[in-house]
Amino acid sequence: MIGLIFGDTDFPKEILRKIKQKNFKYLIIDLSKNKSFKQDKNSKSFSIGQFGKIINTLKENKCKKVLFAGKVKKPEFSKLRLDFKGVYYMPRIIKSSRLGDAAILKEIISIFKKEKITTINSLTYNPDLTLKKGIYTKIKPNSLDKADINKAISILNNLNKYNYSQGAVVRNKKLVAIEGKGGTQKLLKKSKNKKFKNKGVLVKFPKKKQDLRIDLPTVGFKTLKQCKLAGLKGIVLKNNQNIFLEKKKCINFANKNKMFILSKWKKRSYHF
Questions:
Q1: What contacts 164, CB < 8 A, 6 or more positions away?
Q2: Which of 43, 91, 202, 220 is the most exposed place for a label (fewest CB within 10 A)?
Q3: Structure confidence by residue, pLDDT tens digits, 199-254
Q4: Which pLDDT score is estimated for 266?
């Protein structure tokens, strides 16, 4: 029995579809805002402060492995209703929160490990959802695009020293915006400029201390549409370290709008 700890976004639905195809036994711990999985007979809903109930439910159902997928909104710790184990573990989580979201996730993995529950990679059952090395569109980056890509990579590499930001938009070799707490959607809204069409790139790489088992940069059709609205020409991801949803739909959209999708990485820059 595999424990599926699900939040929001479409990624959990893709995982569930694959697990059902393989006829695996599963239990969903539903932490999504609108209880998206309540119709599934193998789903149980919890609040994020109910550590005891979550851990006990996993153990009662003999779930020795768990998989995290989807976005769970960072809670206001002072307003959480905690059970006994929540009271016990919450100080550790609050302490880790001072170091950012990645530290919270690592602490939660550590708690599960202490409870003898192993966290597995979120792509274990869906390796097809990540882009391997290559250019996936008819349009390829030209020399100006390559300069923008390398500039964005350089910026993200420098920010990595502080474990800050997994996304940057660069246009004409100038930084337009970096991804902050508002995520990719806010980044692309800030990058919108009606003067430009098919100019500039979005580069999304995982941060240095990001736990790739449960926290991978994710893009999908919505992201690509927002890139188009922002006047950008392409998206660049780090190969095998991304989640790419609705792949076929995205590639068709990119080809139609003369955009590129690229997944390739060198330590300091892209070489074509």
A1: 207
A2: 91
A3: 999 999 988 777 788 788 889 999 999 999 999 999 999 998 889 999 999 999 99
A4: 57
Contacts with 104 (C-beta within 8 Å, 6 or more apart), sequence order? 74, 93, 96, 97
The enclosing H or E element of 102 equals helix 101-114
C-beta atoms surrounding 200 within 10 Å = 24
The pTM for the full model equals 0.83
Reported as a pLDDT band with limits 50, 70 and 90, residue 265 is: low
pLDDT digits (tens, 9 = 90+) for 68-101: 998 877 667 677 777 788 788 888 888 877 776 6
Residue 268 lies in a domain: no
DSSP 71: B
Question: What CATH number does residue 48 fall under?
Answer: 3.40.50.20
Least Cα distance to 92 among 74, 106, 107, 114 occurs for 107
Please indicate, yes or no, whether residues 108 and 181 belong to a single structural domain of this protein: no
CA atoms of 47 and 32, how far apart (whole Å): 9
Which residue shows structure tokens 């940057």? 168
CATH of the domain at 221: 3.40.140.80
Residues 106 and 148 in one domain: no
Burial readout 49-71 (b: 16 or more C-beta within 10 A, e: otherwise): bbbbbbbebbeeeebeebbbbbb
pLDDT the model gives residue 218? 87
Residue with tokens 């800050």: 164
Interhelix angle for 221-229 vs 183-190, to 10°?
Answer: 10
Q: Could you tell me if 270 and 235 are in contact, meaning their C-beta atoms sit under 8 angstroms apart?
A: no
pLDDT tens-digit map of 154-189: 999 888 877 778 899 999 999 999 998 778 888 999
Backbone angles phi, psi at 123, to 5 degrees: -100, 10
Asked if residues 5 and 111 have their Cβ atoms less than 8 Å apart, the reply is: no
270: left (phi over 0), alpha (psi -120 to 50) or beta: beta
